[in-house]
């Protein structure tokens, strides 16, 4: 059985935030979520997360996730350190398990690396294995000192390292694999008799070596994966790396991204082949984009489903569905719960909210469609307003198939326009428009001759 223990109890003081450090987001998801996802992807069957400062916020966010949370005590008299954090999870370590130690602030770690670490640990029958990295500048990191056979002899912190040891470029990432029983035994033996008065996970390695057990070292292929987030600057750096990963993933799978450096796609967004993404586009949340779509500059799509062959230009779409071969924009806004059919046109400065528009309907410019059910083949003219709110309540409007709503008309809900109903331009409709009827609701035009001269405007 593979178990992960994810240490997420740090204060994150350098973030200067009321939010728990591990809840700060990278490409739309908390940094801790990436670590959990990578751990599960590598086959861990139980994930134990040790929380401390801001722990209640973390638990609340992941309340629907089958994670085991353990609280690390907080207080001036409480000893800290990675070893102390591991002690909080000892009750969930099974004797016959393989335990992977991870950190909640390293979202760039991948399931591939964790899986390789586990396999290396098991295949070589190590009792402990350290994930290491080779750095050109290892300053600040604990150095890996190996035996002639290649196993780890010891881990030396920089402040304790001899001059020759400081030249070693292989460093300790702080990520480990342990035999479950031996880890429990060693945790019961470590102490905090040091300058910091803290318990260290590295002491577990020293105890196992002293007792004659083999400790291996697996060198990570890309050291960027162990990059931790301790400040807003590091958060921005991590965001850049993650965004690049996500964009490259989509390009490898057949999506054209014109300018990846100026395109924001959150983790989990799905995009079909031969879709083209222009600069300035933001795709967020649980968004799904079909094949052969064109998403042009400065469009933002959140939690929406966009079917095949859709064209979107400089528009915002939230929590909505757009059918095949539909054109949106420029400067349109689909607000939540809009369901747009096939071959529909939502044009310049059209706003749709909580409405359904069936296939082949057109609202080409400057209209507001709110709380409406609009049928097939409907034409909605320029300046049409679906008047859905009386100051206290909202009401729905129904427009039947093949209806025609003339420019600058107001449909005052609740009201029905039956199929093939025609509304004359400039009308304010408050009553039902029967099928096949033309409805005109505007004052009769009256011309007053000579009005300009009487008012003295014309000389």
From TrEMBL:
InterPro entries: Bifunctional_GlmU, GlmU-like, GlmU_C_LbH, GMPPB_C, NTP_transferase_dom, Nucleotide-diphossugar_trans, Trimer_LpxA-like_sf. GO terms for molecular function: glucosamine-1-phosphate N-acetyltransferase activity; UDP-N-acetylglucosamine diphosphorylase activity. Mg(2+) binds at residues 105, 230. Its cofactor is Mg(2+). Residues 268-334 form the Mannose-1-phosphate guanyltransferase C-terminal domain. UDP-N-acetyl-alpha-D-glucosamine binds at residues 7-10, 21, 81-82, 103-105, 142, 157, 172, 230, 335, 353, 368, 379. Pfam families: GMPPB_C, NTP_transferase. The keyword Cytoplasm applies. Residues 1-232 are annotated as: Pyrophosphorylase. Pathway: Nucleotide-sugar biosynthesis; UDP-N-acetyl-alpha-D-glucosamine biosynthesis; UDP-N-acetyl-alpha-D-glucosamine from N-acetyl-alpha-D-glucosamine 1-phosphate: step 1/1; Nucleotide-sugar biosynthesis; UDP-N-acetyl-alpha-D-glucosamine biosynthesis; N-acetyl-alpha-D-glucosamine 1-phosphate from alpha-D-glucosamine 6-phosphate (route II): step 2/2; Bacterial outer membrane biogenesis; LPS lipid A biosynthesis. Residues 254-459 are annotated as: N-acetyltransferase. Residues 4-221 form the Nucleotidyl transferase domain. Keywords: Acyltransferase, Cell shape, Cell wall biogenesis/degradation, Cytoplasm, Magnesium, Metal-binding, Multifunctional enzyme, Nucleotidyltransferase, Peptidoglycan synthesis, Repeat, Transferase. The keyword Transmembrane does not apply. In the C-terminal section; belongs to the transferase hexapeptide repeat family. In the N-terminal section; belongs to the N-acetylglucosamine-1-phosphate uridyltransferase family. PANTHER family: BIFUNCTIONAL PROTEIN GLMU, NUCLEOTIDYL TRANSFERASE. This is Bifunctional protein GlmU. It comes from Tissierella carlieri. The lineage of its organism: Bacteria, Bacillati, Bacillota, Tissierellia, Tissierellales.
